[in-house]
Design brief:
By secondary structure, the protein is of the alpha/beta class. It has 9 helices and 15 strands. The protein has helices spanning 35-43, 58-61, 64-70, 145-156, 171-181, 186-194, 210-216, 225-233, 240-257, and strands spanning 2-8, 15-21, 25-29, 47-52, 75-79, 89-91, 96-100, 103-109, 118-121, 125-127, 132-133, 136-137, 163-165, 203-204, 208-209.
Amino acid sequence: MNIVGLPALVGTYDNYIWIIHDNYQAWVVDPGESKQVIDYLTENHLTLKGILITHQHFDHIDGIDTLLEFAPQTIVYGPKKIKHPAIQIACKEGDTLKLNKDLEFKVLEIPGHTKDHIAFYNDELLFCGDTLFTAGCGRILGGTAEQFSESILKLRSLPDHLQFFCGHEYTQTNLTFSQLVEPENQALQKRIAQTNIIYPSIHQGAQSTLGEEKETNPFLRFDTPALQAKLIQRGASSSNSSLFSALRAWKDEFDRTH
């Protein structure tokens, strides 16, 4: 399967719309816009077969209606916990989606950013929407810190080799914050030195691996001893939800001043 990230809402939200295709058929993840998707499908002679939605925010779903006009046969998959009228197959944890003979996804419920958030993954790929970003995570916009910390631990339990795809391009800012949080992290220093983001060009392939995120993303490391100690100094207790909440608040403070 080929995977490309089409930039969307550039300059405001800096989204990626992911297209998965086999040179004939295509599936789209979180289409917040439609024009660039239709252009890409048309230019590459691809038939749109499905749309996968991770959560209900407009920058992930606003392109759906126009895409369905363009390709009425398209099947829309999305969280069971939302009532979007376009969703034909409502997905919950444990579901398996067989999209064709070569493409299958399992569903993981990962609330926190929103109450309805889900991820799609298989033995090679992880599409996690706005729950985790490259070197960061989404804000709490409807879920709770307890839900979010549990969801992060779920994602952390998945295999390191999974190719990692998220909903936005915030890598550079997130790495700057990560360095503030863990200046002693050698894997993070190596990642920073090797990172060169060219946005809004089309992104080919994965943004990172889940293993790289586990080594360098502080939101997957909130309970490590060194970071835990820093967060307790910032007023957290030792519970996962409190540690996560303190780290997320630290990032919110950072975002307001950068």
